[in-house]
Write a structure and sequence with these properties.
about 45% helix, three-stranded parallel beta sheet, mainly alpha, Sc_DH/Rdtase_CS, oxidoreductase activity
C-alpha cells in the first residue's frame, strides 16, 4: 500500500489485513487453547507472530492499517497472558516481533526507485520460534524483537 491510508479506497485490502492479522490470530489462539484443554495439556506454548510495528507507530503513512493490526496483536497477546494467569494455567505465551522481513509486502511498500532495506529471512523468524520453544518450562519468553543488522529506526 503506497501513499496515505485515508486516500486509499481499498477497504477490502484493510478487511483482509484485519481478518488475517487479528481475527485469524484470535481464532487460531482460541482453538489451540481449546485443544490443549481437551487433551489435558497445561504446559503448552502459544506463539504469536507480531512485528516491531506492533510496538511503535513508525513513519510509514501508507501502512497505518497494517500497523493498527500489529498493535492489536500486542494487546491480544498481553490479554491472553493475563487470562491464562487468571485461569491458573501454565501455558506460556510468546510474541515474536520481527523488523523488516524479505517479503512481497516489504517490496510493495517501497517506492519504485528505492533500494531495499536490510531484511530478515523466514529462517530467522523460525529460529526465534525454536529458541522460545526450547526455553525451560518455568521460563516465560515474553517478547522477542528481532531486527536485521543495519535496519533504520521506523
Amino acid at each position: 500500500m503506497k501513499g496515505g491510508w485515508v486516500s486509499d479506497e481499498n477497504t477490502s485490502q484493510w478487511r483482509q489485513m484485519f481478518d488475517l492479522n487479528v481475527l485469524g490470530l484470535s481464532i487460531c489462539t482460541r482453538e489451540a487453547f481449546k485443544l490443549m484443554k481437551e487433551k489435558g495439556v497445561d504446559d503448552g506454548h502459544i506463539i504469536h507472530i507480531n512485528g516491531v510495528l506492533g510496538h511503535t507507530l513508525g513513519n510509514l503513512p501508507g501502512l497505518i492499517p497494517y500497523v493498527t493490526t500489529k498493535h492489536a496483536v500486542t494487546v491480544l497477546t498481553e490479554g491472553l497472558r493475563r487470562e491464562l494467569v487468571q485461569l491458573g494455567s501454565k501455558i506460556r505465551v510468546t510474541s515474536i516481533s520481527p523488523g523488516s522481513v524479505d517479503t512481497d509486502m516489504l517490496r510493495d511498500a517501497l517506492p519504485d526507485d528505492a533500494e531495499p532495506p536490510p531484511a530478515l529471512k523466514g529462517e530467522d523468524i523460525a529460529g526465534a520460534v525454536i529458541y522460545a520453544l526450547g526455553a525451560p518450562k518455568h521460563v516465560q519468553i515474553h517478547e522477542i524483537i528481532i531486527k536485521p543488522v543495519g535496519e533504520a529506526h521506523y
